[in-house]
Input
Amino acid sequence: MMRGQNFIVEWLEAGSNTETIQIESEYETMVLMPDRGGVIHRADKPAVHAVAGTVCIVPAGPYSIALEPGASYGVIASSRADINMDDILNAPAYADPDPRIDPIRTPYRRQVNQGDVQVLQMDDIASPADKPRLKIIQTETLSINWVAYEGPRKRSQLSPHKHASYEQGSLAIRGNYQHHLRVQWGNDANLWQEDEHCGAPSPSLLVIPVHLIHTTEGVGDEAHLLIDIFSPPRADFIAKGWIYNSGEYTLEK
Output
């Protein structure tokens, strides 16, 4: 389990027997089921069955996930009432909050099917016309880019960029990657740093700080699946109409 300032990522790998995992959050959570399905149980609610390749958006509150033997799952949240935050792998990095990172403030509010688990089959979601590599969805407090492709990413089409007010989590689920990282030069050459090119197998999570120039390259001929994580949801993506389910949410200021 790892975290950013506004998000928490838990990676689950089921054993040879059926397992049940308990989750509780103040906000909606995302449950990623990339290779097998699973069942979500909530008190006094019908069980929700999901198949491989889905993302389930689960309303706030406690629930459990029945894991299929040998399957892998990702749980992405902005809060977790069921865990000790000090036990998270990189918890010491967040002992002092970074004031440059925008807080969640007022969460978005779901306008339709309130209280229901939403099951999104990612193969059925269309990419934005001007962002064919990305499929983007949101919750009250999160947005993710689902980036799936076969073979290596074209080295002539990488996209180095940086973010001024939010972190990015990059969760590698399938395939191998090179994360290319650069600290922008300032006037004082004594502070300049060498570029870093970090190999990242799956599963792995990179949390990218604000102002760090970055791009990620899928390497090798195999299938790749990378999930980019943001919290709060990307307002610029919403404004451009890139987020598939943004019409189901409103932001009350």
